[in-house]
Amino acid sequence: MELISKLGIDVKLLIAQIVNFLILLFVLKKYVYGPVLEKLEQRRGMIAKSAHDAKKSEELLKDIEQTRMEMIQQTKKTTLEMLEVAAKSAEETKNSIVESARLEAQQMHEQTKLQLAREKEKMLKEASDELGRLVVRATEKIIEREFSPDDQKRLVASATQEFSK
Amino acid sequence: MSQTTEIITENTHAGSAPAAAGVFTPPTIYSETVGHIGSFEVRNTWIMSIISLVFLFVVAWRFSKNYRDNVIPSGLQNLVEVVIEGLYNFFHSVTQNHKETKQFFGICATIFLYIVVSNWFGLFPGVGPVGYYEVHNGHTVLVPLLRSTYSDVNMTLGIAVISVVMTTVFGLSNLGAGGYLGKFFVNPLRDPIGAGVGILELISELSKIISFSFRLYGNIFAGEVLLAVIGFLVPFFAPLPFYGLELFVGVVQGLVFALLTLVFFKMGSTGHGDHGESHGKEGHSSEPQHATA
Known about the structure:
The structure holds two protein chains of two kinds. By secondary structure, chain A is mostly helical. Chain A has one domain. Chain A has three helices and no strands. Chain B contains seven helices and five strands, in the order E-E-E-H-H-H-E-E-H-H-H-H. The N and C termini of chain B lie far apart (56 Å). Chain B is globular, with a radius of gyration of 23 Å. Helix content of chain B is 63%, strand content 9%. Chain B has one domain (2-272).
């Protein structure tokens, strides 16, 4: 007991210290430890999430890149195919156009020939008709001018004579 | 303040204090009573402890103000965060178990902060030499108004009692009454050696209180005496390295107290029989937590 008195141990002070400590513990726990640890946890979660997201976006980017490459490849292939088809169809079209043009030209040629022939015939006929009329008219004129009334009479008479024969 | 004559500093050695002049008076091993509040003796170490508590409260208050809403913490908040996170990771490296770290964190961290802050506050100028002269057993002695908190057995004993009592509380809550008490009380007919060891464990549990309180008290009190001696011999410059040493000792003692408390908590919460098994289990359960952390 001498030890206790020499060290100045005082039960009230001891209890005061314990109570003070508990108050400090309560205050720090409520206002410091709790919020800090909570926030650290939050931050840890946030960082983990960001890392995860970054990884995911990287994968996504890779995926997109791959898809893009595939699509480009596909497009190239399709384009080539289409070009080939187009060239083939163009060739065909060209051939058919040429063929039909040739046919048409031939047809037209024939038709023209036919028409020309018909035209010529018609013209010939017309020309001969015209010529006949002209001959008649010229003959009439000649007859009117060259033949005097005596001649006419004589001619008429001879003609009549001839007819009457 | 019963026989107050005047407040005076030791360094000035005023003529009205004949006993102090030129004579080295070491700090007493007990804290001095400087006043009374009712029947409560106000000790100088108690005043210092209240100052450290107020300091910690102010820091906590300044810290918690709009802490939750701040995405980017300010200077003080950063500092507190660094300290708390450092302590948490340090304690976690001891327990290897997030549940236990969270459970033990409050008390261990508070012990650390309270001890370190108090020790550092005890190094302020004016703590120790400022006081009044009083006639004691025929000698005139300086009674310091302020004295480093843990240079008083009452203060260290208070923390030690909390540490040991909480070891028991955590042991009981984590192992159950049977599991925890089974470490100390073993049927001597079935296992006589175990029974003897149990008794020794019980004694060592009680002796922890003594070792805890005297380790901290001895270190801080020795620091006080050391600084007083050096300050008496060479008042200028020579004490500076020792002040640096005492700053260091202040942290180390806080760390030792907190860490020993943590280790005792951990040991108290680990069963006697299932030592290896629970270790294996903890190792298993802590691995995925590590991976996520």
